[in-house]
């Protein structure tokens, strides 16, 4: 299976031809022919929330989860007033307490970021899949030069909250971040996000994408929503079986594999692709 890079994917039209629908359909026809030559059986796609998806997609499209998009195309006063009232108070308090934010476009304090981030993941009992190391960050530095930036919040001379932001032509994207547990009540992370929003606007970006949570009641989602209460969007995802014959072969191969282990494999109905589904197993 092929999946999109971090963030969002899909075809992008570079030059307006006046017949985008025909162009997109031709693109996917060519994609369907090319994919099997590369061993691609299925794809999972997350569509950008910045604009409604109006172009043709050959697979199934569904809603996954809410996400928060901060529209920077307003004046600074309006951007500030869009924050929740309690959030504005907390940001001002952090400023009064001497907390300040610095950008780090070269990753000079990547190790401090990593320490904060991994401690945050440990505190939230995140799976190992969310953990990072310096080798991973070094690859970002090497391959995304000019398209990433760290932001660090300092309190009493120490970095207490830190975020890694990815940068595209018109947007900034929250990638990873965290705050030391003992510094949560300083509101350093809230000031940090405010400064990232200000930096994004000053650098000509139109959107800051904060991401979302598991659902609309998720505390993390509610926290992000505080910066853009009117910026909630629903993420659309696409699931496309490109090579149905090979896909069915893989599903059957998985069934046989589980049967040989003495298990009656019942794949989770909501999982894609089915052949990788965690199983409801009866023995």
Task: Compile the SSE list and pairings.
Blueprint: H1 20-34, E1 42-46, E2 60-71, H2 76-81, H3 85-96, E3 100-104, H4 110-123, H5 134-143, E4 148-155, E5 158-167, E6 171-179, H6 188-202, E7 207-212, H7 219-225, E8 232-241, H8 244-260, E9 264-267, E10 279-282
Parallel strand pairs: 6-7
Antiparallel strand pairs: 1-8, 2-7, 2-8, 3-4, 4-5, 5-6, 9-10
Summed up, what is this model?
With 283 residues, this protein is α+β, with helices and mostly antiparallel strands. The protein contains eight helices and ten strands. It has helices spanning 20-34, 76-81, 85-96, 110-123, 134-143, 188-202, 219-225, 244-260, and strands at residues 42-46, 60-71, 100-104, 148-155, 158-167, 171-179, 207-212, 232-241, 264-267, 279-282.
Description:
The strands form two sheets. An eight-stranded mixed sheet has the order 1-8-2-7-6-5-4-3. Strands 9-10 form a two-stranded antiparallel ribbon. The protein is α+β, with helices and mostly antiparallel strands. The mean pLDDT is 90. Helix 3 crosses helix 6. The chain has two domains: 93 residues, no CATH class; 166 residues, Gcn5-related N-acetyltransferase (GNAT) (Aminopeptidase, 3-Layer(aba) Sandwich). It has eight helices and ten strands.
| Principal-axes shape call | globular
Unreliable parts: none
Using only C-alpha atoms, the radius of gyration works out to 22 Å
Assign the CATH superfamily of the largest domain. Answer: Gcn5-related N-acetyltransferase (GNAT)
How many structural domains?
2
In N-to-C order, the SSE pattern is HEEHHEHHEEEHEHEHEE
Strand content range: 25-35%
**How far apart lie the N and C ends?**
29 Å
Read across the widest sheet, the strand sequence of neighbours is 1-8-2-7-6-5-4-3
Oligomerization: single chain
CATH topology of the largest domain: Aminopeptidase
* Total number of helices: 8
């Amino acid at each position: 299976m092929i999946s999109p890079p971090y963030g969002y994917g899909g075809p992008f039209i570079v030059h307006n031809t006046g017949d985008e629908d025909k162009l997109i359909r031709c693109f996917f026809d060519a994609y369907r022919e090319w994919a099997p030559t590369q061993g691609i059986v299925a794809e999972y796609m997350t569509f950008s929330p910045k604009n409604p998806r109006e172009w043709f997609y050959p697979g199934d499209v569904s809603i996954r989860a809410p996400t928060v998009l901060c529209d920077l195309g307003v004046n600074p006063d309006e951007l500030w007033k869009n924050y929740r009232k309690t959030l504005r108070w907390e940001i001002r308090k952090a400023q009064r307490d001497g907390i300040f934010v610095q950008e780090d476009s070269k990753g000079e304090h990547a190790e401090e970021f990593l320490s904060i981030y991994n401690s945050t993941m440990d505190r939230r009992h995140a799976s190992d899949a969310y953990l990072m190391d310096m080798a991973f960050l070094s690859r970002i530095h090497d391959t995304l030069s000019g398209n990433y930036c760290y932001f660090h919040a300092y309190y009493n001379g120490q970095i207490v909250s830190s975020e890694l932001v990815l940068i595209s032509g018109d947007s900034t994207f929250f990638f990873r971040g965290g705050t030391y547990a003992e510094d949560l009540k300083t509101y350093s992370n809230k000031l940090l996000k405010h400064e990232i929003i200000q930096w994004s606007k000053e650098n000509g970006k139109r959107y800051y994408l904060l991401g979302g949570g598991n659902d609309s009641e998720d505390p993390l989602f509610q926290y992000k929503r505080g910066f853009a209460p009117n910026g909630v969007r629903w993420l659309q995802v696409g699931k496309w079986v490109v090579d149905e014959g090979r896909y069915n072969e893989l599903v059957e191969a998985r069934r046989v594999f589980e049967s040989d282990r003495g298990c009656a494999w019942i794949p989770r109905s909501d999982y894609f692709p089915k052949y990788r589904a965690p199983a409801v197993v009866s023995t």
